Amino acid sequence: MRKAVYPGSFDPLTNGHLDIIDRALEIVDHLVIAVLHNSAKKSLLTIEQRIDLISEVMKKRSNVSIKMFSGLLVDFCRGNDIKIVIRGLRAVSDFDYEHAVFLMNRNLFSKLETVFLMSSGEHSFISSTMIKEVASYGGHIADRVPDVVNSKLKEIYGKKD
Ligand code: PNS
Fold first, then answer.
1. How many alpha carbons fall within 13 Å on the CB side of residue 116?
2. Which is deepest, 74, 124, 144, 149, by most CB within 10 Å?
3. CB 69 within 8 A of CB 35
4. Residue 104: which pLDDT band, with cuts at 50, 70 and 90?
């Protein structure tokens, strides 16, 4: 069985993440969405909120599991018998960082392979950071995030449609 991990902060999950998840599911048998819990990094959503939102969106997909991780991704992969990492690349600007992380991960765990999927055009400019900024000023994000995420951000920022 081909098992892979899609790691990230998912603060919050966007349609760009969803695009990568659905395309990864075409090439692997099981995808573990690993949500980073880093107490040193300030996030808008708690780890529980991020996992709940992803679980809600994933409830119709059977070959997906959602786990929290902290510490090194390579340790999570070793502990869960995973040798494939999925990452999305939106633009050239993502490349340097992703390349450095890829090299470091390979250095730490030589059996780990990273598969990069290029984001679809309509998602190539979306980031969780931008979504939060637009939502915080009451901007329209409904077509960029799943409905449950849109509702949660409205609840947080106190905006109504
Ligand atoms: O959604 P993000 O914030 O781009 O995801 C980044 C993530 C979580 C994949 C990356 O920061 C990560 O793997 N963090 C865990 C610590 C680690 O293993 N770092 C890589 C070696 S430098």
1. 13
2. 149
3. yes
4. very high
CATH topology of domain 3-125: Rossmann fold (3.40.50)
158 pLDDT higher than 90: no
CA dihedral of 65, 67, 71, 74, whole degrees rounded to 10: -10
Rounded CA gap, 131 and 147, in Å? 13
Domain limits, the chain: 3-125
Give the predicted TM-score (pTM) of the model: 0.96
Indicate if 106 belongs to the active site: no
Cα distance between residue 119 and residue 60, in whole Å: 22
- Number of the ligand 1 atom closest to the C-alpha atom of 73: 18
Q: Which residue, by CA, sits nearest to atom 19 of ligand 1?
A: 72
pLDDT in tens, 64-97: 999 999 999 999 999 999 999 999 999 898 999 9
